[in-house]
Design a protein that fits this description.
- Helix content is 48%, strand content 17%.
- It is built from nine helices and eight strands.
- α1 crosses α9 and α7 packs across α8.
Length: 215
Amino acid sequence: MIITIDGPAGSGKSTVAKLLADKLGFIHFNSGSLFRGITAYFLSQSANINHIDEEILKKIRISTRYDGKNQLIFVNSQNFSKHLRDEDVTKNAPIISAIPEIRKMIDACQRKFAEKNNVVIDGRDTGSHVFPDADIKFYLDCDVNERANRRFNEEKIKNPNISLDEVKQLIIKRDEFDKNKPISPLIVPDGAIIIDSSTLTPEQVVEKMIEHINL
């Protein structure tokens, strides 16, 4: 069974997806981790993020494993799971995610994994592009101010000098980027159940999702 959760940055997709997967006994698959893994690989190779050579792309092999608790990301047999949330990875992942060859590679990786597993997959195009025929599709929306507050509380631990307004502007910029991408832009997937998480806890969002899932 495949359940997808799409939505903008900071809407709580990954947190909710993990909780929902745990509740159902499914595997939580974070598609964004794949893009972050490849980004971490390129940074480790001191590659020019804004111009990745085609020959380098041809040599990329990405895979993911589930160790019973966490999703592990391997690029060319190297484990980059510990670097997925590095600041430079977060900054450059959107650039890498816009490369068509990489998107095709990651789409294939997701589909292969889902063939043999019950999964909850979150991302920005999982229900609209990667799994248009998913059993259940959700779109998790959230007010931009609430998303900024959530992300600010996360980021200020790593960067005490960051401001709330700075975080908000970064989210607005990311929204524009995601919605206007020529390939797989952020949209509400056909048939998706829309849930606004602005005033809900992750647990309350999961409760609403469970109401729509018949196992």
